Amino acid sequence: MLAVGSGVILVLLAELVASALVAAQFPNVFPKSLPSVVDCAEPIVLVQGAFTRVSRIEGEERGTVPVTVMVVREASADAETVANACEQQIRHYGWERNAQVWPWRICGLDTTAPEFEERDSSGRFVWQFEVTLTVARSV
Asked: How far apart are CA 122 and CA 109, in angstroms?
């Protein structure tokens, strides 16, 4: 697939992270958009940041892409429990066989500990954590 700009390709990296959650049967995972509370009361939303280049060699550049994972639940304890389970799933997922989407390859990842972020406008609790993907890109 040809992409117009890196934004289209980078969304696929968030989808790879989402696939780790779907593989563990977490419901309502949204790697592209935040659903309305009417459509989904308790989503897991992934928000991807921009690629930051760290190094470049002939034919390849390496850098990082941040992905924020937000777990939204009616009860704070539920949001915390699910956020911790999501973080552990992403950290221990079998990335070796699921880490590539042209032209990107996930070389490594790190996560932060989940923490309470806010109560959203509908009163639900949001717990979140960061996934920092170290990626290589063919140039």
From this structure: 32
Write the burial class of residue 37 (CB in 10 Å: 0-12 exposed, 13-18 middle, 19+ buried): middle
Residue 95 carries which DSSP code? G
Residue 75 CA: distances (Å) to CA of 22, 41, 50: 22, 12, 31
Which tokens go with 105? 């390859």
Q: Where are the beta strands (DSSP E) in the chain?
A: 29-30, 44-48, 52-57, 60-73, 100-101, 104-111, 115-119, 125-138
Provide the residue-wise pLDDT of the chain in tens; the chain has 139 residues. Answer: 334 444 544 457 888 899 999 999 999 999 887 788 888 889 999 999 998 998 888 888 999 999 999 999 999 999 999 999 999 999 999 887 777 777 788 889 999 999 999 998 889 999 999 999 999 988 7
Contact 125, 119 (CB under 8 A): yes
Q: Which two tokens stand for residue 114?
A: 């989940």
| Spatial separation of the C-alpha atoms in residues 45 and 94, rounded to whole Å | 21
Note the pLDDT of residue 3: 42
Angle at 127 between CA 113 and CA 89, to 5 degrees: 55
